[in-house]
Request: fold
Amino acid sequence: MPDTQVTQVAPDRLPEAIRVLVGGDSTAARAVLSRIEAGRIRLIDAWAVQDHAGRIDSVAAAVQNPGRTLGLVISPLALARHPRDAAAAVAAAAGTDRGDADLIQAMFDPGRRAEIACVREAGFEALATLRFMDRPLEPSVPASASEFAAGHELVPAESLGREGLCRLLGRTYLETLDCPKLAGRRRLEDVLDGHRGTGRFDPNLWTALCVAGDPVGLAMVNANPEAECLELVYLGLAPEFRGRGLGSLLLETAIRNAQHGGLPRLSLAVDEQNRPAIRLYRRHGFVPGTARIALIRSR
Reply:
């Protein structure tokens, strides 16, 4: 009889599996279960490594993210008695039958080397190291002089319509330094839905920049009340308009929009390889914080 087996988590064992998933913290487990029951976390599937006595040793779970992607969460392998078997549970969760999802994504603190190695063994590839940055929403940001340059216009992004927004997203993704490995791996409609589904969408916090009537840039801010912040979920310019100070214009606009969101700070995540963007954010008061390793697997 093998020492362990990988099995799909049955509904009656979900509370135990969630407790393992969050490192044995019963309070955190109850909070996660409450969010699942309320539909705020859409758990798609969970797989567990069980020992010969049926005890759950480690867990891998797939959750639905906006924009037809899945997110992978795994339990801390430092607490597992059989950490080498966890890759099989990860592979099972990553391969769960969810036909409309193109990608499954995972994100870890760089110190969680065992978990990173585990998901890589299950077929994930490193996407980027993301650096989280934030700034307080005081003091206020004055209007930029470039806002009033001839031919420049800031308009509600929603005025472009869904098709226009998708076209603009695609244009701003060209030659991007932010997670370039994602280029072409998701439908633009799904990318847009992913941005809408991050936190709480408010169309008043999304702005497009037009030059001579041509949409060339986007700044998207969503509220995240649970984290007590607003998030800059996307900032982008078409390649031919970069290096003209228009990124500053868009970022200043995003900060001013966020100041009406009723939360104390604005946060973002940026690829550590995107040095121009990091310099831009630093100039506008953003301070680097934690890092996360992002990994993806096509489905």
The two ends are 32 Å apart (CA to CA). The chain has two domains: 4-123, 133-292. The chain has a mean pLDDT of 92.
